[in-house]
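so the lab meeting is tmrw and i was supposed to have these ready like two days ago... anyway. pasting both below. for each one the top line is the aa sequence and the line under it is the structure tokens. i havent really looked at them closely yet so no promises
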Amino acid sequence: MPHILLADDDMNFATILKKELEEESHQVDHVSNGVDAILKCIANPYDCVLLDLVMPGVDGLNALKIIKSLKPEIPVITISGKASTKEISESLSCGAHSCLKKPFSMEDLKKEIQTFRKERKK
């Protein structure tokens, strides 16, 4: 069962996404800020991190940089509803696997997760 960390401060969105992913047989931990995302990544072996770019405190971009410096093997998909094109671009250059714009379809997310799972098996 793939273990996913979801870091997003929008509780409604996070609750729905967590439920959808759990119905797809994923184990999902949720945090609402960048600091907690970093701490969870240090403490747990995640198969994937879904990281909102715009969060209070440590934003997703800075959390991404720290996570990738500590655990470069963890695939990170950034998600954004409010981030600028520059922030999205920067997330990709900092090691994000991809960036999905909110609202995105579950099909798009599932494709992204399957893509890096196949890559990791090689």
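ok protien two:
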Amino acid sequence: MKAIVVEGTKGEPELVWREVADVAYGPDEVLVAVRATAVNRADLSQARGNYPPPPGASEILGLEMAGVVTAVGPNVRGWQPGDRVCALLLGGGYAEQAAVPAGMLMRLPDEWTFVMGTAVPEVWFTAFINLFWEGGLQEGEAVLIHAGASGVGTAAIQLARAAGARVLVTASAEKLASCRALGAEVAIDYKAEDFVTAVSTATHGEGVDVILDPVGGSYLERNVRSLRRFGRLVNIGTLGGVQGEMNTGLLLGKRLKIVGSTLRTRPLAEKIAITQQFTERFWPGLRAGALRPIIDRTFAIAQAQQAHEYVAQNKNVGKVVLVVGE
């Protein structure tokens, strides 16, 4: 099969589409002919040598895919060759084949394209677990979503609104309208406005209940100031650095919770539970069109280098998808 192989030097990767060994699949797995995969920030970090895959995971980039089942392991029930599926992966999506634990599969609706299917697992699962599992977001609460126009952000806006929460976001000026169109009530230009002041104004000085933050260090103090009593900060990234300072008195006085969260390193059993719970709660809304994956643009898989550069330049609103085959 062919796959994207990372060549070049650390920090200056070259993504090359070339022949590699075929994928082996286990007794509890299915083999999928990949038709589409997608670009995530983790892929950019891994390609630069800064985010090695977990033990046992494929060295090939790619944390999600959509495609067609071509073979099933002897212990697999409920799936057969020809089924159209999408799934979260530990790695290996940037390839013509992927081995997937059967419990991770979601059946692709007949009316959905593979491009639509691959735009769901990584970012929608990330938004789901961090808003509801980690953040405990409830109906009637207010949530601040940083990077609201990102893949995770566009999913989080929709999930929070579907759960009956009030949504505030930060994004660059040219992306604010897209966030509002998805359901953000308050959209803050993080380059021109102080989001602490904007949040305070929008919430009459109370602050928000939950913050979903991929920025990290440089936002820590302002996030703590933007939370109301018993608020929860869920940090899912370090785009703003790994070091930050905060007023510990506010942390104690407001009785806040700060949670660090990743998806990729969670145990398989937990990922299967995430798949099942997400499918039960939100898959019907996606199928009905009440929720929708936001796709910025597509690239052919051989153009993965250009796709990474596009995402690195922060040009996208929603997902960037790599088309692998017909």
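from a quick look at the 2nd one: The radius of gyration is 20 Å. The chain has two domains: 2-120+265-323, 123-260. will dig more after coffe
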